[in-house]
């Protein structure tokens, strides 16, 4: 039994430096493929989060206008809802996606009266160019 183990210990072979270099090179190639894919996933998640925030802002604005908590005649300046005015919005969330220049983006809510009616088109937009604007309508009941 002792002879068996002594022969095994004498015949020990390890990995050559070439084999180790090949394994390291393969790991480097795999990492080079995986890292950009993971970066793309986080970018898509940020855009999806911003789109969901914009949908929420649109629905909240519709409710606020319909219930009279946002008055388009007093709480809007130049077509843009004054955040902090009225009883509804005290602040808007910060978008996850940055602008193309790398600066923080911002959401804005715009109202456009449809003709002379009390119906308004609501546009929620972001200064980040990769996030599309969304629109909806609400009727202001005085």
Name some characteristics of this structure.
2 helices; 142 residues; two-stranded antiparallel sheet; 42% helix; alpha+beta
Task: Write up what this structure looks like.
The protein is 42% helix and 18% strand. It is an alpha+beta fold. The strands form two sheets. It has a three-stranded antiparallel beta sheet with strand order 3-4-5, covered by helices on one side. A hairpin with a 7-residue loop joins strand 4 and strand 5 (134-139). The chain starts with a helix and ends with a strand.
Give me a quick take on this structure.
42% of the residues lie in helices and 18% in strands.
Ranges where pLDDT stays below 50 over 5 or more residues in a row are none
Shape: rod-shaped
Lateral strand order in the biggest sheet: 3-4-5
Fraction in helix? 40-55%
Q: How many E strands?
A: 5
Helix/strand structural class: alpha+beta
If you average the pLDDT, what whole number results? 79
* Distinct helical segment count: 2
Q: What fraction strand?
A: 15-25%
> Largest sheet, if any?
3 strands, antiparallel
Series of H and E elements: HHEEEEE
Terminus-to-terminus distance: 99 Å
What integer value in Å does the Rg equal? 30 Å
